[in-house]
Amino acid sequence: MAMSRRTPTSLASRGARRGATRASVRKAAVLGLVGAVALPLIAWSNAVEVEVDGERHAIRTYSATVAEVLDQLDVEVGPADAVRPGPDAALSDGLTIEIDRAIGVEVVIDGDETREVLAPVDSVADVLEAADLGDARADGAIISPPSTAGVEDGDVVHVTLPKAVEVVVDGDVHRTETVLDTVRDVLAELDVDLDPSDRVRPALWEPIDGPTEIVVQRVDTGEETVEVVLPSGEQRREDPDLLRGTEKVAQEAQDGLRVDRYAVVAVDGEQTQRELVEQTVVRAPVDRVVLVGTKAPPPPPPPPPPKPKATPKATAPATASDSVWDRLARCEAGGNWSHNGRYDGGLQFHPDTWTRHKPSGYPEFAWQASRDQQIVVGKRVQASQGWGAWPHCSRQLGLR
């Protein structure tokens, strides 16, 4: 990088000083010539050399100190100029007095901090030392121009100091120091690959202007499907063709199935966003259909006409029109041959008992059968189980 330059404010005065110095030196030379005539005085003077503003001058002088010589020669010395030996040093014959003029150099640190250096410096390294930045190069700073370059009045030196950077990415923490300019540059130096969806904080274009923490979050997008069971219901429908009190399953139930599709976003492996995108019914639910009978049962057949009363025998009086089965039916069901309950008919048959003993072609349930049909079945039950099939009423009627 070329050395930047600023216009010095002291050049005119410095040129005037240098002109005055040369005039004084010429005056001193004349005085020296006059002194040569005055030979007796030579032994009392000191021969000295003065190096100032790039010139060397030899004179004899009766001054006692360096400051007196410089005053005698009208050499102006600024507060930052270096005089060797010091102004209070005593003169001796053959002494050389050197004056190094201070120059002004600006040091710009990290592009925003400026330090003014006014000192007798010859190189960038001297400038850095004067600006309390002598260790900057060893610490990894970027220096422009390089520290070995020479400097002149009005030059500008740029120093970029390393910054502490912490990079958090993929579960790891990387700590380093860098002189790079932006977040993007730091990540590139660490070989951190970025996808377009990844998040970086601070942003990639942000400058590294101090201790910085850089966080890289990996962002993954994808889809997730979920199967949802659609429960079936039940419908009950009246059926006039079925007898009242009976039911029939006309259709079995089947649950439905729906597939829900979600768009998901995961940051560093943890899901942070889930949005429903689509719902598809794969199978609609099917309700269970139950038919409920509403048909009234047929009326019971009319009872048979009463038999003519027989003339009772003198030895065995009895009621000729009242059979044992009618008496049993009155005891069991109040004489209602169409009784419909847990036990059916006038003789109160259990459904299983009726099914096992009824002849082929008889009604499905006892309460649907006629009195005579129920008596036929009753006789079969009595033949296989005895009167104990009707434990209470048979005992009450004296049948056992």
Task: Explain what the structure shows.
The structure is a single chain. This protein has 400 residues and is α+β, with helices and mostly antiparallel strands. Helix content is 22%, strand content 33%. It has 8 helices and 19 strands. The strands form 5 sheets. Strands 1, 6, 7, 8 and 9 form a 5-stranded mixed sheet that branches. A 4-stranded mixed sheet has the order 3-2-5-4, covered by helices on one side. The protein is rod-shaped and about 190 Å long. The termini are far apart. The relative contact order is 0.07. The N terminus is likely disordered.
What descriptors fit this protein?
4-stranded mixed sheet; disordered N terminus; single chain; alpha+beta; 400 residues; 5-stranded mixed sheet
List how many beta strands DSSP finds. 19
Largest sheet: 5 strands, mixed
| Number of discrete helical segments | 8
Rg: 64 Å
Helical residues, percent: 10-25%
Mean pLDDT: 84
Q: Which overall shape is indicated by the principal axes computed on the Cα atoms?
A: rod-shaped
Task: Return the string of H and E elements.
Answer: EHEEHEEEEHEEEEHEEEEEEEEHHHH
SSE-based structural type: alpha+beta
Terminal CA distance: 133 Å
As a percent range, the share of strand residues is 25-35%
Oligomer: single chain
Unreliable segments of 5+ consecutive residues: 1-41, 310-321
